[in-house]
């Protein structure tokens, strides 16, 4: 069995973190994309990998991000849709509202980069039947919005405790980072099945450690590195070993703030790892990605989905989604 993995970056912007955290200052759309995008592209060149960048439609539509979007459009990397408004309560919206959200983001991303996104990741791992149906109708080939772990609700509780949100706003975020049932979702890619429609939409989960279902995305590894870099490397090595033993082809996620460090951005101290220097983060990420290349060929999430589609089993959406 050939081994391969995929690597992606969620290009969440400064304003989107503030919005999720309930800070009114998000409405000015503060941005750091002119800093982050060149760093992501330089990082990918250094480790000689092609990855997938999930772009928020609002950022693609704003003129002040045009230069950063053009860089992504001119690059070799795949672009994906990360919704328009980046609201982790996307699952609460009607099918029509979701359709508009995905469609508007797709048009903005295509207009800004010259690329048509064919993959989607919900903000805060938001997922619903309405989203899957809208993606299928609009010709998307894959979704990458599931995180099969029990850690999500614990992370949400910690996040909410820091935020100072009122009850109504907390209720809107009640599935941020996923629910307890996420731990029961498959780790390997699968296809969504609907009783009333044919679908070839492939789900590519953000991989968690086989058997233990612990996160192995970049932000979590950097969090462990604050305790011990040796620990974080050993943790990833163990996860990749378990992937080999269980036949899992990992899909690893990085966040934009994994490329930004202490003192570079104001008011985002609530995000894990923001007390680390940016140079140290990027050095650690490079090491993690070297371990990933040792595992096997590293491809885009789109290529991961295409290869997985040949053998992916079907899961009934009605039983699995809200």
User: What is the count of structural domains?
Assistant: 1
- What is the straight-line distance between the termini? 35 Å
Based on helices, strands and strand pairing, what is the structural class? alpha/beta
The top-level CATH class is: Alpha Beta
β-strand number: 10
Low-confidence stretches: none
- Coarse shape: globular
Q: In CATH terms, what is the fold-level topology?
A: TIM Barrel
Mean pLDDT: 90
The helix/strand series, from N terminus to C terminus, equals EHHEHHEHEHEHHEEHHEHEHEH
From the coordinates shown, what is the CATH architecture?
A: Alpha-Beta Barrel
Helix share, percent: 40-55%
How does the major sheet shape up? 5 strands, parallel
What multimeric state do the chains show? single chain
Could you explain how this protein is built, in words?
- By secondary structure, this protein is α/β, with parallel strands linked by helices.
- The protein has a single domain, classed as Glycoside hydrolase/deacetylase (TIM Barrel), CATH 3.20.20.
- The chain contains 13 helices and ten strands.
- Strands 1, 2, 3, 8 and 9 form a five-stranded parallel sheet that branches.
- Helix 6 links the parallel strand 4 and strand 5.
- Helix 2 packs parallel to helix 4, helix 5 crosses helix 6 and helix 9 crosses helix 10.
- The two termini are 35 Å apart.
- The model has no long low-confidence stretch (mean pLDDT 90).
